[in-house]
Design a protein that fits this description.
Helices cover 6% and strands 54% of the residues. By secondary structure, the chain is mainly beta. Among the domains are: 136-200 and 214-230; 232-446, no CATH class. The strands form eight sheets. Strands 1, 2, 32, 33 and 34 form a five-stranded antiparallel sheet that branches. It is globular. The chain starts with 5 loop residues before the first strand and ends with a strand.
């Protein structure tokens, strides 16, 4: 593989948002208010990008207009439409498939006309249709999928069973997928097999803080339950934090997810609230406005688990502790993590990478941002990013009833520190083939989002992320490191602009060798003291 190199492509301006001097690279820059994140987009291959965001235009009582803008691959606007929605509607998830873009919105306050909104966007025809349905009041969306003409919405309820709704985007016909379990369950993932017509739902039952069980329901298209499988080898004090079902063939697949330590104390954390208000909101609903970092009980993880599923395989779970990953000493910069690794090696009690789970777990206690599993060259790549909250201590003098001074200390939240990424490749049975990772440097932010990504050219893989106006990249081949981490700058539109700070930066594959970098930045002109402004940017990158 040639040396990883990202080059900024000269771009065509988007309306009045882009301007620049001749000879300088251009990119889209849109002014925003400090601390806001209104812009969303879905890459659409060579056909461009669909960008959508709430506008300041009122659309009637308690409603605002959302702008949907289609851009070509050079960021030139092709068309736009305004669609009114209730002010409490939130965008949750979107993806493109078969020349169509699907978007899911949830109205968390009222459902007079339906609290679920699914948008069907056909860019080549300049067509947007809106389809509504309803899930129970106060239910939280767990996942969204498209199965043939049906939208599938999985949801959880604090005081009730999980559920899944399917409704036709053509006729509006509804189908309910029942879960014959106790109320103490959480739906984690749904997957739809459009070829063999099966629908899979992965959920866990957790009777205590140290014990849980993972289940997979298999439904046919009519919503009838074909079978329910309890995955084997669930172990006490190993709590399952996330799960995805990966289809590998006709009725076959495997579950992959993350697990962490449990305790013997029943309900040492709020099982439902901590999952949604912290762990789940980070990557789906985004951070809540009333978030209190000092009360963050986000579940932590020690490693990955897998379990295969077929008509003859009952699904035996395998566990892979991050401490046993190759090269961890090269990309883990946490001293406590390294001490745990050395202790495991010394005692020879860590899991030896066979997935049996018979050894003693040495806990890294990482909070993780999970990526969807990617199929690539016969392997399935599972990527996650580790982070931890960071604080500093403040001390001030207080006075008691008698006027005597005494020091009082308290912690102040500084942000979330990204530390590294874990990457593992699995075969179709869920057995780990190799693992690797990448350090993430100098990233401290109060916003959480997935920054890391990967590019596979069949001989090597490049891991890369966007942070602090730089693209960091590292080339690997299986467990081997081909090239260590390097950096290339992401230049602002104007050469006189000085980078101050950023949040929600990201980079992802777009089409061919092109990638899309985005984020929010604070900039200041070197020529004007105190002239600070905040922008959202899109930048087209090429991999050479």
């Amino acid at each position: 593989m040639k040396k990883a190199l990202f080059a900024v492509i000269f771009l065509i301006s988007l309306a009045s948002c882009v301007s620049g001097q001749s000879g300088q690279p251009l990119r889209v820059e849109i002014p925003v208010h400090t601390g806001t994140n209104p812009f969303n987009y879905i890459p659409f291959g060579e056909n461009g990008i669909c960008m959508f965001y709430p506008t300041s235009n009122d659309a009637g009582k308690d409603s605002i207009n959302w702008s949907f803008v289609m851009l070509d691959k050079n960021f030139k606007e092709l068309w736009r439409k305004l669609i009114p929605m209730h002010e409490d509607v939130s965008y949750l998830k979107g993806f493109s498939r078969n020349n169509v873009i699907y978007l899911l919105f949830h109205d968390t306050q009222r459902n007079t006309d339906g609290n679920i909104h699914v948008f069907f966007i056909y860019p080549s025809k300049h067509l947007i249709t809106e389809h509504r349905s309803s899930i129970p009041d106060k239910a939280d969306v767990a996942d969204f999928e498209i199965w043939n003409e049906y939208a599938l919405i999985g949801y959880n309820q604090r005081k009730g069973k999980p559920g899944m709704l399917g409704f036709s985007l053509m006729s509006g016909e509804k189908r309910n997928f029942d879960f014959t379990v106790s109320d103490d369950a959480l739906l984690l993932d749904i997957a739809a097999d459009t070829i063999y017509k099966d629908i899979y739902a992965v959920y866990k039952i957790q009777p205590s803080s140290s014990r849980n069980m993972l289940m997979v329901n298999v439904y046919d298209g009519s919503s009838a339950l074909r079978r329910s499988v309890a995955l084997k080898n669930a172990q006490e004090k190993r709590i399952l934090n996330s799960a995805q079902f990966i289809l590998t063939g006709n009725g076959t697949g495997f579950v992959a997810g993350t697990y962490g330590p449990g305790t013997r104390n029943r309900r040492n954390y709020d099982y439902y609230n901590d999952y949604y208000n912290y762990y789940y909101y980070n990557s789906f609903y985004r951070r809540q406005a009333n978030y209190d970092a000092n009360k963050d009980n986000t579940p932590v993880s020690d490693g990955y688990f897998t379990a295969s599923l077929s008509s003859s395989d009952t699904g035996i779970m395998k566990y892979y502790n991050f401490i046993d990953f190759s090269n961890t000493q090269k990309y883990l910069n946490d001293p406590e993590a390294m001490r745990s690794r050395k202790k495991a090696e010394k005692n020879n009690k860590g899991e030896a990478g066979d997935g049996s789970g018979n050894g003693h777990d040495y806990s890294l206690d990482y909070r993780l941002l999970i990526h969807p599993v990617i199929a690539s060259d016969g392997k399935y790549l599972f990527l996650s990013e580790a982070y931890s909250p960071e604080y500093h201590t403040m001390t001030q003098m207080v006075y008691d009833y008698y006027g005597r001074a005494m020091p009082s200390s308290y912690s102040v939240f500084d942000g979330f520190r990204y530390t590294n990424a874990f990457l593992a490749a699995f075969d179709s049975s869920g057995t780990m083939a190799w693992n690797n990772g990448m350090e993430m440097r100098d990233i401290l932010t109060t916003y959480l989002n997935r920054k890391m990504n990967l590019y596979n050219d069949s001989s090597s893989i490049v891991l890369f992320y966007n942070a602090n106006a730089k693209i960091a990249y590292k080339t690997i081949q299986g467990s081997s490191i081909i090239e260590n981490t390097s950096f290339t700058p992401l230049a602002p539109k104007k050469v006189t602009d000085q980078f101050i700070g950023e949040y929600l930066s990201a980079i992802e594959p777009w089409y061919g060798d092109y990638f899309l970098a985005s984020g929010y930045e604070s900039l200041r002109s070197n020529n004007m003291e105190g002239n600070k402004r905040n922008i959202f940017y899109l930048c087209k990158m090429a991999f050479k």
